[in-house]
C-alpha cells in the first residue's frame, strides 16, 4: 500500500481521530503501520503519547538535522510506529523559503523506509501550507473526512482545487481514495451530503459512517485507540469496519 494523506482544511471533522483509529485498526489486523504527524498542533502525537517530549521530530527531518529512521517512535498501545510533530512546524514555510525543491522534501525523506511498512498515513495540518503540499506530493492518494454539513463541502472544493494546481504546476497526479463521513447523527442529512458529494465531485463515499460518540473523546483522554478503550462502542465498531473498507 502506498502513502496516504488524511486531509481537510476545515477543522473539527475528526481528521486526526480518523488517522489514529484507522492506523490502530490496521495494526490490529496485522498490518505494519507508520503514522506521520504533520500538524504543528501535534494533536496525533499528544493523543498517543500525552505530554511526552521528543528530542527529534518530523521538523528536524524536514530541515535536514535528523534522519527519518532516527525519529520513528513505537507506540505499544496503538501498536504502530509514529513520527511525532512539534510547534516549530508552524514557522517552517519561512525557514524553507529559499530551499530548492522544498515541496518534495518529505517525499524524498520517506524513500528509505517505504518498504518497511504496509501503510504510511499522514495526518495533515488543517491548512494549505508548505507541509500539506509536501504531504500531498509524498502521497499516492488522499482520504477526505467530512462532517455532514455545508462547510465541509467548501473544504472538498479547496482540496480538489489544490490537487488540480499540483498536477498543472508540478506535474504530479494525486488520487482521491474517497470521502469518510464523520460525526454522523442524522441519516437524512447524511444522505443529502452523500448525494451532493457524488453529484458535484464524483467522489466515492465510504459506506461505514463514524458516529458522533463520546467514547472517541474518552479514548483520546486515556491515550488509547477507541477499539481498545471501548471495543463495544459504536465508534470502535465503525472504525474497525471502515478500516477494512479503506484497505480493500
Would you write up a description of this structure?
- The chain is an alpha/beta fold and 248 residues long.
- The chain has a single domain (3-247), classed as Rossmann fold (3-Layer(aba) Sandwich).
- It has 11 helices and 7 strands.
- A 7-stranded mixed beta sheet has the order 3-4-2-5-1-6-7, sandwiched between helices.
- The radius of gyration is 17 Å and the shape is globular.
- It starts with a strand and ends with a helix.
Order of helices and strands: EHEHHEEHHEHEHEHHHH
Question: What would you call the structural class?
Answer: alpha/beta
| Number of individual domains | 1
Tell me, rounded to a whole number, the average pLDDT.
Answer: 92
- What name goes with the CATH superfamily? P-loop containing nucleotide triphosphate hydrolases
**What order do the strands of the largest sheet run in, or round the barrel if closed?**
3-4-2-5-1-6-7
What CATH architecture label applies? 3-Layer(aba) Sandwich
By CATH, the topology is: Rossmann fold
Give the radius of gyration: 17 Å
End-to-end CA span: 10 Å
Could you tell me the number of beta strands?
7
Main beta sheet: 7 strands, mixed
DSSP helical segment count = 11
Amount of beta strand: 5-15%
> Uncertain regions: pLDDT < 50 for 5+ in a row?
none
Amino acid at each position: 500500500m502506498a502513502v496516504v494523506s488524511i486531509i481537510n482544511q476545515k477543522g473539527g471533522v475528526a481528521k486526526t481521530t480518523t488517522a489514529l483509529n484507522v492506523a490502530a485498526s490496521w495494526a490490529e489486523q496485522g498490518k505494519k503501520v507508520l503514522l506521520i504527524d504533520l500538524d504543528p498542533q501535534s494533536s496525533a502525537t499528544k493523543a498517543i503519547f500525552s505530554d511526552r517530549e521528543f528530542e527529534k521530530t518530523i521538523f528536524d527531518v524536514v530541515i535536514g538535522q535528523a534522519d527519518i529512521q532516527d525519529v520513528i517512535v513505537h507506540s505499544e498501545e496503538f501498536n504502530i510506529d509514529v513520527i511525532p510533530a512539534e510547534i516549530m512546524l508552524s514557522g517552517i514555510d519561512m525557514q524553507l523559503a529559499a530551499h530548492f525543491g522544498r515541496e518534495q522534501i518529505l517525499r524524498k525523506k520517506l524513500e528509505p523506509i517505504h518498504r518497511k511498512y504496509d501503510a504510511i498515513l499522514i495526518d495533515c495540518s488543517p491548512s494549505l501550507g508548505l507541509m500539506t503540499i509536501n504531504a500531498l506530493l509524498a502521497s499516492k492518494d488522499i482520504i477526505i473526512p467530512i462532517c455532514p454539513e455545508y462547510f465541509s463541502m467548501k473544504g472538498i472544493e479547496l482540496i480538489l482545487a489544490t490537487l488540480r494546481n499540483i498536477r498543472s504546476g508540478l506535474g504530479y497526479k494525486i488520487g482521491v481514495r474517497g470521502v469518510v463521513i464523520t460525526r454522523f447523527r442524522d441519516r437524512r442529512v447524511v444522505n443529502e451530503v452523500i448525494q451532493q458529494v457524488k453529484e458535484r465531485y464524483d467522489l466515492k463515499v465510504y459506506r461505514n459512517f463514524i458516529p458522533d460518540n463520546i467514547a472517541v473523546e474518552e479514548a483520546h483522554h486515556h491515550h488509547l485507540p477507541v477499539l481498545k478503550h471501548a471495543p463495544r462502542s459504536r465508534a470502535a465498531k465503525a472504525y474497525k469496519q471502515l478500516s477494512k473498507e479503506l484497505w480493500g
